[in-house]
Write a structure and sequence with these properties.
Elements: E1 18-19, H1 22-30, H2 39-56, H3 72-90, H4 92-111, H5 115-153, H6 171-204, E2 206-215, E3 223-229, E4 233-239, E5 250-256, E6 259-262, H7 270-301, E7 307-314, E8 320-324, E9 336-342, H8 357-370, E10 382-387, E11 397-401, E12 413-418, E13 423-424, H9 436-445, H10 450-454, E14 465-468, H11 471-493, H12 499-519, E15 521-524, E16 528-532, E17 537-541, E18 545-551, E19 554-559, E20 564-567, H13 573-578, H14 584-597, H15 617-634
Parallel strand pairs: 1-7
Antiparallel strand pairs: 2-3, 2-5, 3-4, 5-6, 7-8, 7-10, 8-9, 9-12, 9-13, 10-11, 11-12, 14-15, 15-16, 16-17, 18-19, 19-20
Length: 635
């Protein structure tokens, strides 16, 4: 159904601004990368190539000639691999540069590799070739989209709105990167300190040749061994790889009094290496994000940019803006999405709509039609001006009229700026100009008018209406129940410890979630709503209910006095929406909202006790106690 978008005042529309029409938008959307070049396939190929190379990598035992010391080169190689996996999704240009560096390393290894090493590196190079092909294809698609967007915008270029606040992008990312780099520097300093201390002590120690005469088994990280040197002198030494030192093996020891080390295993800095890796990899990722954000912001702030007249809608839950073609008043084909924040210097500065009252009156009439009795209208389409060149990963800004949920005209405009990279709408779901199923899914996720919901209810109904946990909700509950059982097994297996304090704190919340997900129930009757939660069943009169709201994992009922009743979790609505499956929680929230505002639609009788539901929390407590007893007996 076509809608009359909330109009933008003519004085805020730059002279010569061209509308982004559906024909141009279709050409723009057709320039998106092929599905074969999606980040998921590239990431899978890179992981598979790395696994292949590791599987063919020969295992080398630690020896005095080749001690197991510091592996800085291997650590850097693995860190770059992790960064490439992240950049494949967020920074294709950096991912391409990282893939080239990894390929150069593999080529150097191939120049002097034996046949076994060559097999692993060759497979990894093949995977990198596919990754580079997908990244090159995606970057080429970006260039095509930029060209098509600039062509649709025409030759005119315009400055950003005067009210736009040129806020600094990337500041938070750079601060986080600095903190992580400080942690990395500390880990490196500690690791080098361990290495330096060993080298200083080993330089003053005696080198002793000995033979392993006993290897003790141990559950600890290091296993003790006994080595016998000349004169039948025995030395007790520890190793991380006892399988490499069977009885009779000759080893070299560094001995300085009671300080004894295997020359083949001089020191252990694995923990510091892991800390260095865990801090430096995300630190580099945050640094790249911060610098890229600043670069894109400077490009947008740098001067005059193309503008496009579009239609726009923002989600009331996550603040994500979705852009449509200027003539797509039915909002059937979203083009791109991004999160945005207010970019105005003075949000109190009102901009009037002179000469625009007729358009506002038409919008208000349609907003009242969309809203149910005493209900909020759905987020409308708004006319907007899009500043910048839209393409995947771009930085954009938009100017649009302000909308408030009560449907009253507010003579203000807002300027917002993208704070996440532009993403193509519907990627992986058939594309922005995908099938009708995608449109159906989008239709199911919007806040529907009360009359539309009422038309789907089985009315008139004498019996109460009930909604309960569906398969997705019970699946979430079963997963949490299994997680609880596994956690009890793991903790009891280690015996009593301070970790039980954490269990005692988390267990009530976990039981609440399990009982709710497995057995929640909402029942609407003549006098009110029965809410079956984890511990009790409550009856809420209709006069006490103000509103009903569905979020991705909960149903919230707002009561008079500011009180709120929440059922959570009640399913996995995001996944259900993507799969085109109905959500019982969403249907319940919509139906209760309709019954709240339309008393004539309510059932004719009250619910019997058997129809009101039952709490499952006590049962879950008994199940958890029985399982803990079984684990104790088995262990």
């Amino acid at each position: 159904m076509n809608q009359h978008p909330l109009p933008l005042p003519p004085e805020h529309i730059p002279a010569g601004a061209a509308p982004w029409r559906s024909d141009d938008a279709r050409r723009w959307a057709a320039a998106v990368p092929g599905k074969w070049a999606g980040p998921l396939y590239a990431a899978i190929a890179l992981i598979a190539g790395a696994a292949w190379a590791i599987a063919w990598e020969p295992e080398f035992a630690c020896t005095a000639a080749r001690p197991c010391g510091t592996e800085w080169w291997g650590l850097a190689h693995f860190g770059l691999l992790l960064l490439c996996l992240y950049w494949i999704w967020r920074q294709p240009r950096l991912a391409l540069a990282g893939a080239a560096a990894l390929a150069a390393t593999s080529l150097l290894r191939l120049t002097d590799a034996d046949p076994v090493n060559g097999t692993g590196d060759s497979g990894f190079l093949a995977a990198l070739g596919f990754v580079a092909l997908t990244l090159t294809h995606r970057l080429a698609a970006r260039r095509r989209q930029r060209a098509l967007a600039e062509e649709a915008a025409g030759p005119g270029r315009h400055p950003l709105p005067e009210a736009a606040d040129r806020f600094v992008r990337g500041r938070v990312s750079l601060i986080v990167a600095a903190v992580l780099f400080a942690v990395s520097a500390f880990a490196l300093w500690q690791a080098l300190g361990v290495v330096g201390a060993y080298e200083e002590r080993a330089a003053a120690a005696d080198r002793v040749s000995a033979q392993i005469v006993e290897v003790e088994t141990s559950d600890e990280d290091l296993s003790p061994m006994v080595a016998e040197s000349a004169g039948e002198r025995r030395h007790r030494v520890e190793t991380a790889f006892p399988e490499d030192y069977p009885v009779g093996t000759r080893v070299e020891l560094a001995v300085d009094g009671d300080w004894i080390r295997l020359v083949s295993e001089p020191y252990d800095i694995f923990g510091w290496e892991m800390l260095l890796l865990a801090a430096s990899v995300p630190g580099l990722a945050f640094l790249a994000n911060g610098l890229t954000g600043r670069r894109r912001a400077r490009a947008l702030d740098g001067g005059r940019v193309p503008v496009l007249k579009v239609l726009l809608r923002q989600g009331d839950e996550d603040g994500r803006a979705t852009v449509y073609a200027a003539d797509d008043t039915a909002a059937e084909r979203p083009l791109l999405t991004f999160h945005s924040l207010d970019a105005t210097r003075d949000p109190e500065d009102d901009s009037s709509f002179p000469g625009h009252e007729e358009g506002m009156e038409q919008y208000v009439e349609e907003a009242e039609d969309r809203a149910g009795p005493e209900g909020d209208p759905e987020e409308p389409l708004r006319e907007a001006i899009l500043y910048g060149v839209p393409h995947e990963g771009a930085e954009v800004m938009f100017l649009a009229p302000v909308w408030v949920p009560d449907g009253e005209p507010v003579h203000e405009v807002e300027v917002e700026r993208s704070v996440t990279p532009v993403r193509l709408a519907g990627r992986g779901m058939g594309g922005p100009f995908g099938s009708g199923k995608s449109a159906d899914r989008r239709a199911r996720t919007r806040r529907r008018p009360v009359d539309e919901i009422a038309a789907e209810l089985p009315l008139p109904s004498a019996a109460p209406l009930s909604w309960s946990a569906d398969r997705a909700s019970r699946g979430v509950g079963l997963f949490l129940l299994l997680a609880q059982g596994g956690g009890v097994w793991a903790l009891l297996g280690d015996g009593l410890s301070w970790q039980w304090i954490l269990v005692a704190l988390a267990l009530p919340t976990l039981i609440n979630s399990i009982a709710t997900a497995l057995n929640w129930r909402l029942t609407a009757d003549r006098d009110g709503v029965w809410v079956a939660g984890p511990w009790r069943v409550r009856h809420i009169p209709w006069d006490s209910v103000i509103g009903v709201r569905h979020t991705p994992d909960s149903v919230e009922i707002t009561l008079t006095g500011g009180k709120e009743i929440e059922l959570s979790p009640v399913g996995f609505s995001r996944l259900q929406t993507r799969l085109g499956r109905p959500s019982a929680a969403l249907e319940a929230a919509d139906a209760l909202r309709a019954l709240l505002h339309r008393p004539d639609l309510r059932p004719e009788r009250n619910a019997e006790p058997s129809e009101q539901g039952m709490p499952l929390g006590p049962v879950i407590v008994v199940v958890a106690a029985v399982w803990a007893a079984v684990v104790v007996l088995l262990l």
